[in-house]
Records
---
Amino acid sequence: MAKKTTTKKKATNNTAQDFSKYVRRFWMIFAGGVFAFFLMFLLASWGAFGDMPDHTILENPKTFLATEIISSDDKTLGKFYLDDNRTPVDYDELPQNLVDALVATEDIRYYEHAGIDFRGTLRAFAYLSKKGGASTISQQLARQLFVGVRSKNLFEAVTQKIKEWVIAIRLERQYTKEEIIAMYFNIYDFGNNADGIRSATRIYFGKEPKDLDLKESAMLVGMFKNSSLYNPIPSRNPVGVKNRRNVVLAQMYKYEYISETEKDSLQATELDLNFSPETHREGTATYFRAYLDKFMKDWIKNNPKPDGETYNLYNDGLKIYTTIDSRMQKYAEDAVARHMPRLQAEFDNQNTPKRNKTAPFLELDENEIKDLMNRSMTRSERWRVMKANGKSEKEIRDSFQKPTQMSVFAWIDGKPSEIDTVMKPIDSMRYYKSFLQPGMMSMDPQTGHVKAWVGGMNFRHFQYDHVKLGKRQVGSTFKPFVYATAVDQLHLSPCDTIPRQQITIEADKYGNPEPWTAKNSDGRYDGFLTLKDALANSVNTATARLMDKVGPEPVIDMARNLGVDSDIPPVPAIALGTPDISVYEMVAAYSTFANKGVYNKPVMVTRIEDKNGTVLYQFTPETKDVLSAEVAYTTVNLMQGVVESGSGSRLRGSWRASQALYKEIITGYPYELNNPIAGKTGTTQNQSDGWFMGMVPNLVTGVWVGAEDRAAHFKTIAYGQGASMALPIWALYMKACYADEELGISKDNFEKPANLSIEVDCSKWKGNDGEGTDPSDELDDVLDF
């Protein structure tokens, strides 16, 4: 019995020893695991598994930021970027529903942990991530900023995870919870050039982050799982995108951020996207942005950083504050989009192969057209690129004759569209030459601030800017320069009379190479008319007489002082608008008349800031006195006659029966703009260029319309005049501006100078002899005709 008891005690002791041995082993393994865990942390923090960000880098993570172009009314017009279209926002710019959606879906204990969610981590280990992962928002940010895509190699994946843990803890120490959330939203790539939350909300919904509603926030947060798989544009997985959004809404309901009723109602809705791509060839003010790109590159060349390095336009997150008003820019683009397809339809109707065998060209034979196309070929982008790649001239020319798959521009149902087709490049060039193009600029004459800039019809297909780069014959819009010179030198009144009869300026006078005779478009040369009527009806012989009295050189000096830099030959024929001048120059020149004779150089950029808000550039106004206020006001009064009784009178709503034939292309008629307006139409001799320059006291706008080549034009003046081609765009734009009362566009009279010595009211006009005058009277002595 005693032996049995002893044996039992030994067995019990052995069992106890074995158990204690396992306990010791367990604690040794546990301690070893904890030690290994902390050793791995320590090694990771020392950089044993790869470079780790130091304090400085954590404070300023390396991210590429797009340069933002900001309008005068504080809207984003566009951005400059290469790969990252990212503009960061602060936490207080994020709506609460967006933050709630993120926390509910990605990290419900976000506000409780310090970078690592140990409960989530244990759950992920226990269930092998089948019930969700354990990456906190801080860890996901660490991965986005410093670690990168998860490796498929197990050891590397583990070390990456450890690095994420270490960096997440450091981020939590460095930043507040709110700052980490803002950084997370700012760093994520939502696809379609939507880098960061601000780009994403603008691209997918056409709004700023603070304006997101709940279901929009849910869709964007849903994309964090996989922005490629759950991307709505292009939606290869439409059901999956909607389902993922609904999962986010369900998570928000689960954690009591929203009610069940809200969840159910929102889950039943569609995505309701407003896709607004942000590319360099699409969006608002594309031609202006192209101008700004060159402006900024020139500025960057001459303005290095304090440390001597060069600013990067695409990565440094600069902010460019411009004078463009986003509302006025939209109205200008809308006006072009309304008028141009209707004008183009009429042009195409007149240039069918049956009606015009050389369409779209007029007055050219086949050999002349062949030469024109050859010149265009050698100036084309295709030629330049192939030449740069070492291709021979024969290879390049042959490539223009090979059918190629391409997308070409077309107006379809009055809207800009693309047609996928197969066409020879040489045929596509001829096709594009049939399109009429616009150029339009609008400016505040008192400040020089440019408010709208439309350099063409569609930047994606027509990238040449017809505001600043394009220079075309200005026709009768040049005549106010002649009249202003005559008023300035001869102290003329709009009420002075002038004969309509022909005048010939002899050879050698003013350096004229041969005799020059001005002709009137209506063929009339009888009687007399006032200067105001002469300009209103664009009587060429009257302008030629004024030119003969003052001479070309003073007129050229006047144009130069008004800001016209283009070449103007010193011959009398310039009186009728033979020089090629840009819309940009013409608007600045006309603004001087509206600004009481003071020229303001056009301003497009008011200041430039770096990403921290430090001002790098502040514009300095460039002004000069050109005319007396009296002469400027008199010239304006002369141009008011154009709208009151001349070619611009259709702005008032009047319409002669003979014009009803082409009323259909005058989009939006009747305009019924009855406030004081000064302006001038311009039409070149063969109807290849149509102009309208119009102004009210605080806004001057110029519009040009024409084809790329002057040989493509309307056959008759009915459609080919400035009043039909360009004036409608001006009228539609101004109607929209007046409808937006916040813009404050003036409807007042132009301010009359004090002590005006030139009589502009012809009902009070006494003439130089003090006896009164009549349009049929002889021209007064001051001109001595």
---
Amino acid sequence: MEQPQPKSQRIEPIDIEKEMRKSYLDYSMSVIVGRALPDVRDGLKPVHRRVLFAMKEGGNEWNRSYKKSARTVGDVMGKYHPHGDSAIYDTLVRLAQPFSMRHVLVDGQGNFGSIDGDSAAAMRYTEARLSRLASEMMEDIDQDTVDFGPNYDDSLQEPLTLPTRFPNLLVNGTQGIAVGMATSIPPHNLRECCNALVALIDNPALDLGGIMEFIKAPDFPGGGMMLGTEGVLDAYRTGRGRCVVRAKSHTETIRVKNKGEVEQIVFTELPYQVNKATLTSKIADLVNEKRLEGISDLRDESDREGIRLVVELKRNEPSDIVLNQLYQQTQLQNSFPITMLCIVNGQPRVCTLREILKEFLGFRREVVTRRTMFQLRKAEDRHHILLGLKIALDWLDAVIALIRAAKSPDEAKSGLMLGLFAGARAEEFKLSDRQAQAILDMRLQRLTGLERDKILEELAEVEATIAYLKSILEDDAKLMAVIREELVNIGEQFGNDRRTEIMGFTGEIRMEDVIPDDPMVVTLSKTGYIKRTDLAAYRRQKRGGKGKLGMKTKDEDFVEQLFLTKAHDTLLVFTDRGYAYAIKVYDIPESGAANRGKHIKNLISLKDDEKVVTLMALREFPEHHHLVFATSDGTVKRTSLSAYANIRSNGLIALNIEDGNALVAVRQSTGEQQIILVSAQGKAIRFSAEDVRAMGRVTTGVRGMKMGSGDCIVDMEVMDPLPDLPEGVEADESTAEHGMLLTVTEKGYGKRSLLQDYRLQHRGGGGVINIRAGVRNGLVVGSVLVKPGEGCLLISQEGMVIRFNIDEVRQTGRAAQGVRLLNLASAEDRVVGIAKIDASAQALEEEELTDELMADAETAHPVDENGVQQKLGLE
């Protein structure tokens, strides 16, 4: 018969997947419950609880002398927390930091770190003791108020929670990362929390709205200003949300040598957990990178009195705009995530504010009940002893005689227990062992009349105490009244005023809140320098004045695009490589009329080989509107405008561009309009936008015009459909109000033709003749839709510019060669740009602006007899 193998030699098959799942789950729960998450009852993680308990055990109380931190760390590590000493010391340090804790639980002496991120001194140098409030957390710990459990080696007992008298989980908050979950609870005001608990005791049906009459929002140690309570309300209602806190600031005016009076922004309170040194360095980097404008100096003038971070502004810089840029780009405005995850009955749970308060009240009910029962047992024990002493005093002579006659203490004790007094009946005076021993231990001085009265008084007091304690246990209202009174006392003794100010604010901070939506002139030079100028800057003079230089440019540069928009508009930037970028108009540096501005690469992430082809200012992005794209190879694409509403900081693909192709124009369309494509060799085609089906953003498009050999698209326009002419009626000047097409060639020639001359075709055709391109005219530069009364600007490669009225250009047929518009100064020069001066709703403003620009240019550089501006902006 085969002998069974010893148990130690058996091999048991185990499913590795099940074993890994079980082991990882055990590990996860160990981390969650035993390390990373706080208990809903005392708001402490195990390491925090062990530090405080070890300090109390070591007599390191608030009313005693300080002890070395190293001693506390050693006690904690050796008795309760067998982990690294640095982790324990870091815990002790945080409990002593007033910028980390709303109410410190450790009273530290020495260097315990700073808000600049400086580390605390070594534990051998610092000293610590419990704070007075921490003592309140352990006030009744020796009265059987909480359960104890074995420490890591079963040699000692440690509390599983502390019998705290205030909701520490809310008051000091906590943060922790467990396995698969994290907690982030902000600090709150102690007085507000105690008042809310009192109100909940008075009215157990109190809802969240009623609770928030007392706990309005988190209250951070460093103060600051909270922007609204919408996210806080979500957190209180669901357990998850966020709050936005910004630094508190004010402005001061100082006098600086060689500068006169300048403003400076002074920050006196920072958002919670923001490192001041890192913040200062970040602001300096943003200034050096030219991402923050208007700052001339940055100083940290903080001292032991408080924080004082000074941002000095350049002269005449608006402080409100700079302040909001700082809030947007730095941690001077910070979002604090709220996840109220804690351990409830041994399990992790996300709690609402009301649940946390109810759990704490339930815990306090249990603590006070256990404390009352403990005190009742003590009182009843004392009452039992006092009754025995009273009997002895009533039969004093007989008791003394019995004791004197006894041969030994045991005999005397037995006699007392049997009631063998002279003249006494044993059945009336059965004393217990403890009573008899108490009589034997009684000192002779207790036999005096005064001491006898004290025993009787104490007996009466103990009987009253027993009656009171029993009434608490029997009446729930009295029990809750005790809890209520303790909360009121804690709030009055340790509470203080709210530090974090609550501002009436909802939504995200926007620059639109402080920047007026004024009309702005945006200019872009050929080499990419962009700026915005307040339209009012051009209205200070009338035409015929001395004039102001329109824009400083280099000799090889000139203004290529100029248009009127508003500060709150979004500027879409499209490049020849098919990328789209977005920037707010107010984010473009504002410069005077004579300044060149900033290169557009400093504002958007243009690639080295990209060239801006279209700027488009928009206020809204309606889904039923579209963008129409045209590329040099004749491809067109139509995409919903809403696809470009949220463009990332590094841009996005507007359409796919193949090698050798380039984007030449982008226009806005309602989708029911018509498209005109113009080629370099003088062809044009007009077709309905409905022929181009709407496509997604990352697509190539469809053929719009069939290109001849060596030809390419140079421009595109979108127009409203033309009305049908009565039968037999041909287009003439009377139909010009519907629009005309002005076409300009590189050698300065151009013409305008009626739109009706371009018959409506289907997309993909070869088009019709638009202008005779050849040796005289050169290639077509571009075309614009114009109406009577509008103006136009032509710009040459060498910076020559001319402004003329459309009505001055003779109307001709499609196949005409056109007339001279710009007399170029040299054979090498050529026209490179054409811009229309709109005569619509903003005609008055824009004509004033254009007149000013032209007057400025004419003042700076002479004009020949043909009205041609020789150079624009060379200075």
